[in-house]
Amino acid sequence: MGSKRALVLSTPGQAGQATMVADRLGARAAGVFARAVMHVPIETAREAREEARRLDADCAIAIGGGSTVGLGKAIALESGLPVLAVPTTYAGSEMTPIYGITDAGLKKTGRDPRVLPRTVIYDPELSVALPVGLSVTSGMNAIAHAAEGLYAEDSNPIMDLMAEEGIRALAQALPLVRRQPRDLAGRSDALYGAWLCGTVLGNVGMALHHKLCHTLGGSFNLPHAEVHTVVLPQAIAFNAAAAPQAMQRIERALGVQRRQAPRRECSTSRKPTVRRWHCARSACRRATSTAAEIAVGNPYWNPRPIGPAHRAEIRELLQRSFEGIRPY
Ligand SMILES: NC(=O)c1ccc[n+]([C@@H]2O[C@H](COP(=O)([O-])OP(=O)(O)OC[C@H]3O[C@@H](n4cnc5c(N)ncnc54)[C@H](O)[C@@H]3O)[C@@H](O)[C@H]2O)c1
User: Fold this and answer.
1) Spacing, Cα 182 to ligand 1 middle (Å)
2) 155 and 286 part of one domain
């Protein structure tokens, strides 16, 4: 990359890994900023940008999941600093030109080629410490990119191939990761799947599922990967009849019979339910209504068209996610 002074980014929990990278870089490390948090609050983005300026950094190294890569993107968006990403989850942000910044409780996203990491290093050894629960939900987050990519309005045959292969790789890798979290073969295949699914996310548009998760995560500060995990089976079931070819590919990738894909996704994590987050029932009901309102008010393109008339169905979809009710 031709860079000489890297600012190494991480979350507080991965400060050890960031310091390890900085130590190895020696004089080529300008410093460590270990304050990345989920959904990139604007205040954190400003602090990190200021730190990059103060230290005269000429690139950012993001070691971590989507939150840390997202912080690197927020710096790049303003300064054009190149980002080198070392992903340790399966979120896939490292392969996209999409950024997200949360300002006053609203998460705004956009696309800009400047934020796409210039270099990505996948090292399965760095992901073995990812807790099993988060590994599974993060893998489901990746599968969500591929699943929605398969019925995207602007889908194309190459992305379809990558999406199907990404789902297949993750569907095989995640049970292995769950059984043997420190086994590098499972971790390596999961990262391979994450790379494929992230590439799909970066190249074609997403639909209802991402719109709902984006709203739930950004506006209610719910954990990203877990939200994807509980909503995905419901969203796929909602869209199934309108996207038969995508369903065929998903079923083939998961190795399941016709119309069983949402159920299989559902059983990947034990009993996925929003309740797990100890969200008060009244707060969840409010979130469900507001998210449904946002989804129908300003919808993404979706294979099953969505408009104000579908408010009740979307609320029902979210309610089923909340309760952990199996689709169909
Ligand atoms: N722009 C995009 O294309 C895109 C794509 C996917 C996700 N995202 C964004 O990424 C964020 C979510 O990312 P995420 O799900 O990867 O979560 P995350 O980055 O917040 O990571 C979750 C937690 O796991 C820890 N962690 C990560 N890897 C670890 C490891 N190997 N060992 C131990 N702990 C580890 C992190 O430090 C953090 O505390 C959201 O803000 C989401 O909007 C953006």
Assistant:
1) 19
2) yes
